[in-house]
Amino acid sequence: MDIFRQPKPAAGLYKSQCDPEEEAVLGPAFSWARGDESVGFGKAMFSSNCDHLKIYVDGKLVADADPDRDQFPHLGYAPFTVDLSKAVSAWGDLRVEGDLQGRQVIVKSFSGTGGDQAFEVLADDATLFADGADATRVVFRVTDEFGAIRPFANDAIRLDLEGPAQLIGDNPFEVVGGTGAVWIRATEQPGTVRLTARHPVFGKKQVQIAVVRLLPKRPRT
Questions:
Q1: CA–CA dist 161, 184 (Å, integer)
Q2: Cα-Cα-Cα-Cα dihedral of 72, 67, 98, 33, to 10°?
Q3: Are strands 156-162 and 103-110 parallel, antiparallel or unpaired?
Q4: Which of 54, 87, 89, 208 is the most buried (most CB within 10 A)?
Q5: 86: CB partners within 8 A, 6+ apart
Q6: Among 83, 121, 93, 114, residue whose Cα is nearest residue 205
Q7: Alpha carbon of 174 to those of 117, 165, 169: distances in Å?
């Protein structure tokens, strides 16, 4: 994880080692719209605990893949390595379908247009205790139309905080690699906290957090 507790590319490999009955995992170990060009793209690695992948570019099936157990014989769920150097001659959206025992269990899509399409503001918690120490993280994400983070977005986000809390982090906050986070720390007063984040293109998004009074401790009997 990075300093904001956002997953780095290698996190997908660790996550993919869980039992697929617990969670189906699928993610590319690369940025699809890395430079918004189709040149110089060779082998692609996908981290997944599926047993088969179908890979589409611009709506066309370009590869069927099985886990690369030759290169990764000691992993419980080996990643998939696929040569896409010829497949990306027609650049477009990437769609990957993960199958398990012949049944599709997960699908991921990534935009080939190279454009920022949405801005998200997500708080880890909706409630904090008014003890002067309780805090929660608020994450900013610039994504494509499928919800995948745009790794080249570096917009400056202006923040306004209302209510009984303190902002911990930069303001304005410049996202790094399309994402970042600040923390909201409650004061000792109950009330409603509103954080408004303004993106220069996509406008404002707001999260609301309730700061509640701590219940008095019951005396021991």
A1: 9
A2: 60
A3: unpaired
A4: 87
A5: none
A6: 121
A7: 17, 21, 11
Q: Report yes or no: 188 and 134 within 8 Å, Cβ to Cβ.
A: no
Q: Which domains does the chain have, with CATH numbers?
A: 11-110 (2.60.40), 118-212 (2.60.40.10)
Q: 70-98 in b/e burial notation, b at 16+ Cβ within 10 A? A: eeeeeeebbbbbbebeebbeebebbbbbb
Q: Are 49 and 17 in contact (CB under 8 A)?
A: yes
pLDDT at 121 over 90: yes
Question: What distance in Å separates the CA atoms of residue 119 and residue 56, rounded to the nearest whole number?
Answer: 26
Residue 87, SS3? helix
185 phi and psi angles, rounded to 5 deg: -110, 130
Taking the CB of residue 175, how many other CB atoms lie within 10 A of it?
Answer: 22
**Cβ atoms 210, 186 nearer than 8 A:** no
Helix (H, G, I), strand (E, B) or coil at 11: helix
Neighbouring CB atoms inside 10 A of 126's CB total: 10
pTM (predicted TM-score): 0.81
Q: Which two tokens stand for residue 134?
A: 């309780």
Kindly indicate the confidence band of residue 115, based on its pLDDT and cuts at 50, 70 and 90: confident
pLDDT in tens, 30-50: 888 655 555 566 788 999 999
Closest to 120 measured CA to CA, from 145, 93, 90: 145
